[in-house]
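Researcher: For the record, we're logging two predictions in this thread. I'll number them. Prediction 1 follows.
Model: Prediction 1, sequence and structure:
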Amino acid sequence: MLVDLYLQGRFDLDAFVSGTIGLDDVEAAFEKMHKGEVLRPVVVLDK
């Protein structure tokens, strides 16, 4: 349901993302979350 709303432009999922990180940077992202520097980073997997 949320995917459909997002695709229709009725759910602003992008507003919930505070940044993107690579898989190798997950530990650093957790440190930033604990410090309050980011709230919801998204892990991006490179192909």
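Researcher: Logged. Prediction 2.
Model: Prediction 2, sequence and structure:
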Amino acid sequence: MAQFDDIETQIYEFAKQNAEKTGCKLNPDYDIVAMAIKGIANNKKKYGEQYCSCREITRNKETDRKIICPCVYRSRELEQRGACKCALFVR
């Protein structure tokens, strides 16, 4: 992941480790992973949290806690569609 900046590399490593621990994997399509990671990193820089880049941020901390990557919707989406909404994680 040489073209990622430090925060993007940290988020990538976190996502990779989380996928391994939870029995899913990162999308094999590098472009999709790069786009999702960059979006999450931008949200981290702007809002201070790793909010999913595919979810709308309300700026209500309690509501938005659900969309911190990996979001609460991931398991259901993996089960139903084989990928989460942003397609960072796949079965």
